[in-house]
Amino acid sequence: MRMASATANTAKIIEYALFSGYDPVVKMQMGPQTGDARNFTNYEELYEAWKKQMRWLRDIMARTVNLGRAKDPEFFGRPFLSATYERCVESGIDAVSPEGERGNSWITWFTWVENVDSLAAVKKLVFDEKKYTMAELIDALANNWEGKEEMRLDFVKN
């Protein structure tokens, strides 16, 4: 049996790297502080901040899955599901009970491509071509690209 686990919107990783772990949507510090991206002088600094945010999110998700596997049987037995498994019917053990066989659990990471696209666009437009500064990018993002449509399209197309 497979265990339901955790799902992560990994597009938040690039946002956290650019905003030093701060989430402007919920208006609170979520990830580790990785420095003001306006002060990053090269792509490697941005990439290191991204990796730190990714590790933080991965660790949170792994702890969530592990806690869920430990506590799920205590609070959320699956009698109907258990009735569909021969082993559960024969043994009388619930499908999610730690005494029985347990399947794998997993973390579903979606929106990975947005990370790659975003990192590549920032590398090209800010650090390689120097068309924009990190300060301009951070300000544009903080203001939801307001008045920066040409800039937004540059980042979308690259």
From TrEMBL:
One term of GO molecular function: catalytic activity
Pfam family, one: PFL-like
InterPro entries: GRE (IPR051215), PFL_dom (IPR004184)
Span of the signal peptide: none
UniProt cross-references to PROSITE patterns, sorted A to Z: PFL
Protein name listed in UniProt: Alkylsuccinate synthase
Domain PFL: 1-158
